[in-house]
Design a protein that fits this description.
The complex is a heterohexamer, with three copies of chain A (81 residues) and three copies of chain B (434 residues).
Chain A: H1 2-41, H2 64-80
Chain B: H1 2-10, H2 12-15, H3 18-36, H4 41-54, H5 65-72, H6 75-85, H7 93-102, H8 105-117, H9 124-134, H10 137-149, H11 153-157, H12 161-167, H13 170-184, H14 192-199, H15 206-216, H16 221-233, H17 235-246, H18 249-253, H19 264-281, H20 286-301, H21 305-312, H22 314-329, H23 333-336, H24 339-369, H25 388-400, H26 407-432
Helix pairs in contact in B: 3-4, 4-22, 5-8, 6-8, 9-22, 10-15, 10-20, 10-21, 10-22, 12-24, 12-26, 13-14, 13-24, 14-15, 15-16, 15-26, 16-24, 17-24, 17-25, 19-20, 20-21, 21-22, 25-26
Classes of the chains: A mainly alpha (81), B mainly alpha (434).
The complex binds sodium ion (NA) (3 copies).
């Protein structure tokens, strides 16, 4: 029984460490492939400040007055240009 | 007069055991380390305080209704309990509780109802533990928050550093071997599940250690969590001598090439790649790594910032408070004061040391056979202990070469170590759990 | 070697079904829509991610302990299960679960205990679902937060717009009719409770739809929530053609009179008036509208700002995270992949279209017979989808008349639509629930 | 049975839509009455910036030093006027 | 037509009782006091609103599944219920519920399952109550937050003021005596546990009062909480006349010596000293004072500021919302409308008055026999009601001597009163609980 | 029975009030002793602004770029002195 648990421990080490290495190796492959794929097909114009897309509809009921005021301001600004 | 006796016999002084007093000192010691020495205070302050609360004599804060009833019930009620358990009378509370642990769920329920009817209830900390840890939710929520705080940029810029995160997990499995070795020579008494839970200390990742222990070895959770967080705080003392011993001055001076910039889209896609890989290969790691990837996706996708902010602040803080107090409930004297606890504390530091050494040695190997220069000092960051281990790599590197900033390079293996130990956790739960 | 087999048979690849792979793609698709296209990301990111997690083969994250046990138990345990169910052996897991669904609460408990004793547990997402949605609390808390974000000023300035909020709910009931129609011609198989839950998609209000589905048709909840949130995101595409088709250029140009200022006291008293009316007439709508009014009162009363702030931020964000993941748990392949799901998706968009049309038509009617000019474009805002539908009214109005700001006028029917669909929810729960 | 569910659907529509309309109509009446009542008997001086009454006792133990300092400052300010 | 009858009979108007209508007015009255008069709005807004929700006829929001089933079940189901209860048929719902209250936990579970099978469920507020108050967690979390907001500096600078915090607790015990006195002359019908819970109103500390009531007298919790918070809001009206009547002009003019500065280390160690004392002497006060000390340690230790901030903001706010609504659930007509409620309201104000008087008188005594001057006006702050009572001391002091700032001096007894009433709570739970 | 509850109330008052007074008296003693002990053996340089020790390892993965930038700045600052 005591020898038995030792064997269990060795087994756990072999299969565990093996899985960790295999899994992370696959992750290296997958990540490298993903980066290559994204870089080739979906390249961003880099180094631009990150643009945060405004959520289409936030959970909140926005302040409509604010929206109106801002809309007007943007409008005027564009016309003045 | 009766009231005076009631009050006195209900007081702590009348009921205090030596173990409880000792554990309260341990709790104060943890608070001292956390507050004065800055040992992982976010966890060790709640854990230490919870440890003191758990050991208040007579309050039973860390016990279930059944445990409180077994200690406090009158002889007639105990007779009823033995009838429910289907056993003949036993000598001690300990045997009663062992018999209780062995019965099926229906009997558990019946005995819980017996305890309620006898006027006993769950202690406050026991309830916290049940809701936050036994359910598994608190470590997962913290892992989600950690995911929302993690930047995979350095890892994506240099994915090979994932191998360093894998190598450092050898500390975990070497410790498993140590634990079963101590058991097989008769010094300790750990089951294989216990050994696995102890090994995870070497993962140097608090929520992972607590999650695994809560599944594989709940009785050892207190000691494991205390060891994990204490040794994480000690990383700046444990790692440098090992790192210096295993590297030459020339190796420590190696400068690494600047990391390439990583695009936002790569960062968004990476947690999904990791999730899919987990789904295909290791479903038992899905709760941990799933929540981690979810947190990271919320952070990187840029369209749910209010959720990401909450995951990184209010939610993780609330969870940390209750997780810490709940871990503290496992510092109750009659569970913590055990020769096995000493074994856990000893094995834990071995785990950190072996993990550090493995990381450095594999980094040396990769440097020798790789095409680009790789400073072996970043290998030690593979144990996780984010971001402390990466800072240690940076600091030791600066000692050898004052112009050598390794911090960014070490962040790659550092977060890889988080993934690595979560994978190790999944394997262990899969192989020895359930 | 045994371990290798254990690991392999525990892996996802070995267990993946076609349905699970397909649903993981659906989950990725929802993430794409949410992140890239901005479709209601606050909900669809957690829902999509939860959908992926739910379909990880072998992890059983979306299943109860009993479901996991039925799939994983050995033959001897299944015999015990059939004995508990009081049935003879059946062929498939599906029949076992159907038999389980039919027994009483005491047997449910006994079988849950059987599953625990057999070593199975609830999946993580199943627990999230139970705590957040099955209990009803998450949609209610979100509704409280929405109440604390809602300004009833425009509605109070022009209460007649409540009729537009009523009119647009016709989309709900027309869809009920559609659902029972499809059933009566044999294309689908919906009960009257299912039909009611599907109809509520037309309410264009996420928490209301989830709340009603969780009571009337929990099995359809995933499809209903996905439909509701997706179509809300599509409001700027669905509504304008209908609005243009049903109005003349002259009508779209109508300018409305400036709204009168509304005093703070009116805003404080309004949620109480609404609450009293609910209490007198429609108690089954009390949880939803009660929490909504409570949130609004906290906001308007001005003396509990710290509670109101928390309801609008930390609390609603935490709840949204768990609500989203829980809804995702209903995207599990064997529940979602069903011909009925297609029916739901089809009926949902019909519901939005009919609601929009009804709102516009009643607005035309009110404009014709009312004393003050009313632009029919604000009628479409009555479907709710706050504040998107009001913005759509404004935008279509600006196209016809660049000086015509309808936003404030459209906010009245918009929030009226929230009340209207909550009332409809109450009627449905009262008539077909329980 | 199939016809039966159709009938149930029609019934649900009639009673449901009816209730929604009646309920919101009553809400129009109640709201209008409430606004008239508040406007007549509890009119506010309008357009003033909304005053947030300080809660009589906040949950928190306020910083007493701060309170003392502010009290003193207000006192001095009033005397200087 | 059937549907019309269903709708009408489900409506509130058809089911409203006089008691429910009256309690809804009480709820509106509490909202008026909170919003317009500023009476403890953080608690009384949720309590008042919860009180209205609880009394919505037909909604059963404040009732358990069993209570809802007893009121709504058909005769055949009631026969089954009496069989489960092991009684012969009884006349009223009230008797059924009394019989239900008397049975053991196993029967409770069986009857809960009967109610579920009959299609009844827990009301929303009942669930909130169960999770937040019956579990004990909400008052404890609020106490933790209060601890994190409390500055023990003034107390540490002048520890003798702890005696004032002790003296003012006489209001608690005098009220106990009043309650049993009213019972022994037959005017009221309070048990000794009820009397203890009523007395705690005199502690002038909301969470303590709710915690004690939830353990000793859950049926009276609504009235006790309403009385406690209302009278705390009335402290500026209740205390000054008593303070003036018991002191001379000369005493009110006494200027006190400037408080010494208190070091940060003293502030860190103090909550631990208090905790150890609780552990040694009064374990039954450990949950309350333990959480209080934990909050204070988090604040003072300076290394877990993110946890302390969360405890003072998001966490306490979330808890307050649910605590308030849960207390409101106890304002349900058939529990609140009782002659005992009048007794509680009357006794509560007596408790405040006696506590104030005791504090002032002991302060006079300490001034006479002490070496340093002590203004008796700070004695009244010993009732707690932090920080209102301290402000009242300051204000009355300024009336007598415009240069006499007592605020800081009164903060000592004020926070001492919090400790004092928590200690009193522990004694009561120890002597009459369980 | 009615007299009985009166007796219980009196008892509760005596033991309760007694415990409160004894407990707070012990707290006065313990606090005074603690303050003396801390003042004698662990005296702080008083009145300095409270220093908040930075947690050794925060829960979060700090922004490494920020850390690097700050490290460099501190380094330069020290050298310039
Ligand atoms: Na690790
Ligand atoms: Na709507
Ligand atoms: Na008090």
């Amino acid at each position: 029984m005591q020898g038995n648990i030792m064997a269990q421990g060795v087994e756990l080490m072999i299969y565990g460490m093996g899985t960790v290495v295999v899994f992370l190796a696959l992750l290296v492959v997958a990540t490298t492939a993903m980066s290559a794929f994204v870089g080739r097909f979906f390249a961003e114009v880099q180094q631009l400040p990150r643009v945060r897309p405004v959520p289409a509809r936030a959970l909140e009921t926005d302040d409509p007055e604010l929206v109106a005021v801002i809309s007007a301001a943007i409008h005027r600004h564009r016309q003045e240009k | 007069m009766d009231n005076l006796i009631t009050l006195w016999s209900a007081s702590g002084l009348a009921q205090m055991t030596f173990g409880q007093a000792f554990m309260m000192l341990i709790g104060l010691g943890l608070l001292f380390l956390a507050i004065r020495k800055g040992f992982e205070p976010l966890l060790l302050v709640p854990i230490g305080f919870g440890g003191i609360l758990a050991n208040i004599p007579g309050a039973g804060l860390a016990y279930s209704a059944v445990e409180n009833a077994v200690q406090g019930a009158d002889p007639a009620q105990i007779v009823e309990l033995t009838r429910l358990l289907g056993i003949v009378a036993v000598d001690s509370s300990k045997e009663l509780l062992a018999a209780y642990a062995a019965v099926d769920s229906a009997t558990h329920l019946a005995i819980h109802q017996w305890a309620l009817d006898a006027g006993f209830g769950n202690g406050m900390l026991y309830n916290f533990y049940t809701v936050s840890i036994a359910s598994g939710v608190a470590p997962l929520v913290i892992f989600m928050g950690v995911g929302a705080m993690t930047d995979f940029g350095p890892l994506l810029a240099n994915p090979k550093t994932l191998f360093l995160g894998a190598a450092a997990q050898f500390g975990i499995f070497a410790t498993v071997l140590g634990a079963v070795g101590l058991t097989s020579v008769g010094l300790m008494d750990f089951s294989i599940a216990d050994a696995a839970a102890i090994g995870i200390i070497g993962g140097a990742d608090g929520p992972t250690a607590i999650y695994v222990s809560s599944i594989l070895a709940p009785d050892l959770l207190g000691a494991i969590a205390v060891a994990a967080y204490s040794y994480m705080a000690l990383v700046p003392m444990i790692q440098p001598p090992i790192m210096r011993a295993l590297t030459t001055e020339a190796e420590r001076k190696i400068e690494m090439v600047q990391l390439r910039p990583v695009s936002r889209r790569e960062k968004i896609v990476f947690p999904l790649v990791l999730l899919i890989l987990v789904a295909l290969l290791l479903p038992d790691a899905a709760p941990l790594l799933g929540m981690f990837c979810f947190g990271n996706l919320m952070k990187e996708c840029g369209v749910v910032d209010r959720l990401s902010d909450t995951a990184q602040n209010a939610l993780i803080n609330i969870t940390t408070i209750f997780l810490g107090l709940s871990v503290g409930s496992k510092l109750v004297a009659d569970k913590f004061l055990d020769i096995n606890t000493l074994g856990i504390l000893g094995l834990g530091i071995v785990a950190f040391a072996i993990g550090t050494a493995s990381g450095v040695l594999i980094a040396k190997l990769m440097n020798r056979f790789g095409s680009t220069p790789l400073n072996p000092l970043i290998g030690s960051a593979g144990v996780s202990a984010v971001p402390m281990a990466a800072r240690v790599s940076n600091k030791v590197g600066l000692e050898a070469n004052p112009h050598n900033f390794l911090l960014m390079h070490a962040m790659g293996p550092n977060v890889a170590g988080v993934i690595g130990s979560a994978v190790a956790a999944g394997v262990m739960i899969s192989l020895v759990g359930g």
